[in-house]
Amino acid sequence: MFTLYSLKNGLANVQGFYCDGINCGLRPDPSQGDLAFIRSDRLCDIAATYTTNRFQAAPIRHALRHYGKRFQGNFILANAKNANAMTGEAGIADIETILAALPAEAEAQNPVMSSTGVIGYRLPVDKIVKGLDKLDWHAKNSDATARAIMTTDSFKKELCFEVELENDQSFRIAAIAKGAGMINPAMATMLCFIATDAAVPADEMEELLEEAVSLSFNRISVDGDTSTNDTVYLMANGASGAYDREAFAEALRKITFELAMLILKDGEGANKVVAFEVTGAANDEEAAIAATNLSNSLLVKTALFGEDPNWGRIASTIGASGIACDEEKLSIYYDDLLIYNKDNRELDPEREEKAYKIMKKDSFRIRCDLGMGTGSFTSYGCDLSYEYVKINAEYRT
Predict the structure, then answer these.
(1) Is 189 assigned a catalytic role?
(2) Closest Cα partner for 302 from 325, 274, 323, 340?
(3) CA 18/CA 10 separation, integer angstroms
(4) Long-range contacts, stretch 210-213, CB < 8 angstroms, 24+ apart
């Protein structure tokens, strides 16, 4: 048994971790951060998951070249406004230059870098290197760190939980994330840095992280696009001396899932977060295909924005997904309201009015029972608004 509590101030709560964020000139507004770090005062075991995009950005290529997806280190440097993607070997060399410039007081061991922003431009190395002098290596400024990695995000994303174990030991786990656009359930487009003082065995970290990501970031979609820079790092320094696999796995699942929901809530121009629950599929794999297609569908997303209970868009998306399905067996529900089955193909005025009320909510569930088997899967999406087009049409300006 264990008890989980929510704490304020994110990364600042975790033993042995320090963090800060400043403006080094990548953003024109000096009040907005664009460079941040997270470090531990002792060596950490680190596990990572990266984008499935074949054009991986230079920071990911650098990390994979030197360390792989599981390694020991204690330091992450992150910047906004520039993705350092599609920059070739020069982009990797720029990272080497920046990391080599870290001062001795940073106490960096096997440092890695993460970047987010516009694709196709090399990092302004001089600005970033000069910015290193402005960082406070002994700060615990989670707020500034979380804000410094934002791009089109409208709010910071940081969480922290304390977990008390049955033996009166406890550990803490905290995370910051960024993400609002280019979000697709393929290691969704975002950065997430997780720090814990739990004594997690090194050989368990990758499995635990992959499970948590599969249940959170890999189930959300804002626009169906996958970026070049998606990264999740889990850093465990063992400072608390406490660990319980079940408790840690639950805390990790909870923090990644809640951050994923915050990313959806902040989807560029989004107004609604919707769970797409597919049941009765021939198997879990086909349920996942259907649910993912629903969360990615532009027609479904625009119907959500228009608050139009047009079940035809739901049905046609399932039918186009290529899975086994039959209109005679299909049932569609908005929350618990039956929208469609073979005996109720048209919405009567009473059910349509109820459907409109559901669709006006900030969050609700669309459940599709395919009647083909026992497979199930839930993905999560949001609506697509005029604001999304405006934000992305002006992304570089």
Answers:
(1) yes
(2) 274
(3) 11
(4) 210/49, 211/249, 211/253, 212/249, 212/252, 212/253, 212/255, 212/256, 212/257, 213/49, 213/187, 213/256
Task: Pick the closest to residue 216 from 187, 175, 257, 162 (CA basis).
Answer: 257
Instruction: Give the separation between CA 176 and CA 255, rounded to whole angstroms.
Output: 10
Annotated ligand binding at 151? The verdict is yes
Distance CA 38, CA 214 (A): 24
392 is in an annotated binding site: yes
Are 94 and 219 within one domain? yes
Q: Is 268 annotated as a binding residue?
A: yes
The CATH number of the domain where 388 resides is what?
3.10.20.340
Cα–Cα dist 279/282, whole Å: 9
Q: What is the C-alpha to C-alpha distance for residues 263 and 267, in angstroms, rounded to an integer?
A: 6
Q: Is 110 annotated as a binding residue?
A: no
State the residue range of the domain holding 237.
Answer: 2-265
Q: What's the rounded Cα separation, in Å, for the pair 199 and 206?
A: 14
As a whole number of angstroms, the distance between CA 51 and CA 68 comes to 14
- Check whether residue 141 and residue 286 sit in a common domain: no
CA–CA separation, 326 vs 103, rounded Å? 64
**Mean pLDDT for back-to-back runs of 10 residues, the chain (397 residues):** 95 98 96 97 97 90 96 97 94 98 98 93 97 98 97 91 97 92 49 97 97 91 68 97 98 96 76 93 97 90 87 93 96 96 90 93 96 96 71 54
Beta carbons within 8 Å of 101's beta carbon, 6+ residues apart:
129, 132
Helical ranges in 116-222 per DSSP H:
125-131, 142-148, 202-214
Name the active-site residue from 51, 87, 152, 189. Answer: 189
Is 3 known as a binding-site position?
Answer: no
In angstroms, the CA 216 to CA 90 distance is 34
Tell me if 23 is assigned to a ligand binding site.
Answer: no
Query: Is 242 in the same domain as 277?
Result: no
